[in-house]
Amino acid sequence: MHFEFLVEDQSGKAALEHLVPKIIGTPHTFKIHCYKGIGHLPKDMGSHTGHPRHRILLQRLPGLLRGYGTTFAQYPPDFAAAVIVVCDLDDRNREIFHQELNAVLDVCHPAPIARFCLAIEEGEAWYLGDLGAVETAYPKARKEILNTYVNDSICGTWEKLADAIYPGGAKALRKQGWQAVGREKSNWATRISPHMDPNTNNSPSFVSFRNTLTQLAQDTR
After folding, report:
1. What residues does 3 pair with on adjacent strands?
2. Which segments of the chain are extended strands (E)?
3. 97 Cβ contact list (under 8 Å, min separation 6)
């Protein structure tokens, strides 16, 4: 199977570049497309495609999925492909957000095979699901902070990780501005994800992501 991943930022792309091969293996293939934020779904999903230069994931999503549906329909029967949308739940209601995302497929004719995988609350939850990987990447990490984290809790996840591994914690990082936060998140992805073991991760949302990929890959065998 071929997987097309749509992620909301560069840090997500950096993490998946290391994690996806560990999950799907060969002979499956994949490509990752990153955007400049998550944004909001357009109200008129039947006609709005979003401006190509405005690389905001949810604004572009209806048009992207329609395009994938048309493209995938032209593939030969023995070539399977799927779109995997990966984004943060943030402060959204999980059930409602899933309903909204699945509704996008209703305006796609034909609709692609698509799955929506949410990191709860943020992508850093997936790193914190593997504390061994965090500590390998950051040997001086503050274990007393890491050990207080409850997997997939709504607690200010990136701030929790920053407090454990960044000098001065989240407060010091936030003072440098959001661009600095984004750069540091990419650093975390690049340093932590190579050490992560997808089979032992304790984040329920990561387990759901892993199982989604595994099931799709198995269905094509």
Report:
1. 30, 82
2. 2-7, 29-34, 81-88, 114-119
3. 89, 118
DSSP 8-state secondary structure symbol assigned to residue 166: S
What is the extent of the structural domain holding 174?
A: 1-221
* Sequential pLDDT tens for the chain (221 residues): 999 999 999 999 999 999 999 999 989 999 999 999 999 999 876 655 555 566 899 999 999 999 999 999 999 988 999 999 999 999 999 999 999 999 999 999 999 999 999 999 999 999 999 999 999 999 999 999 999 999 999 999 999 999 999 999 999 999 999 999 999 999 999 999 999 999 999 999 999 999 999 999 988 65
CB 54 within 8 A of CB 60: yes
Looking at the structure of the chain, the number of domains it has is 1
Q: Specify whether the CB–CB gap between 20 and 30 falls below 8 A.
A: yes
Number of residues written out for the chain: 221
Question: Residue type for 11, please?
Answer: S
Torsion angles phi and psi, residue 72, rounded to 5 = -65, -35
Cβ neighbour number for residue 208 with a 10 Å cutoff? 15
Task: Give DSSP secondary structure letters for 54-93.
Answer: S--HHHHHHHHHHHHHHHHHTS-TT--EEEEEEEE-TTS-
